[in-house]
Amino acid sequence: MANIQRVLAENARRLRVLMHKTQKDISAMCGVSQKTISNLETPDSPMSPKLSTVSSLAAGFKLHPAILLLEGITDEALTDRQVGVMIEEFAALPAQRKRQVMDLISDFSRLERSE
Q1: Any idea what the CATH number is for the domain that residue 42 is in?
Q2: Most CB within 10 Å of its CB: which of 12, 56, 77, 93?
Q3: 11, 68, 61, 77: which is closest to 41 by C-alpha?
Q4: What is the pTM of this model?
Q5: How many domains does the chain have?
Q6: Has residue 71 got a pLDDT over 80?
Q7: What is the chain's alpha carbon radius of gyration, rounded to the nearest angstrom?
Q8: 78 with 18: CB under 8 angstroms?
């Protein structure tokens, strides 16, 4: 399992770079200090980010907070707001439907690996 802080640091930095923004720009967009952004982008920072910081960051980027915590997400998916909509729709499904979706994804992943 991935280290959540490392994944968050990588995704936050990648988003900032993709947007051609500085840490100062992101700080202003998200309403958090530049030092917080710097700490957040440091994978081995001794400071663990608060949930409110992750929420502020996601709101500033206009993304679902879960996107920031997805390991191995592509640049395209990282910046796609529709991914957040799909996460919310998945979360609203009944447990049986969630299992069916997960089974389909697992089957698809196995097919992809076997090709």
Answers
A1: 1.10.260.40
A2: 12
A3: 11
A4: 0.77
A5: 1
A6: yes
A7: 16
A8: yes
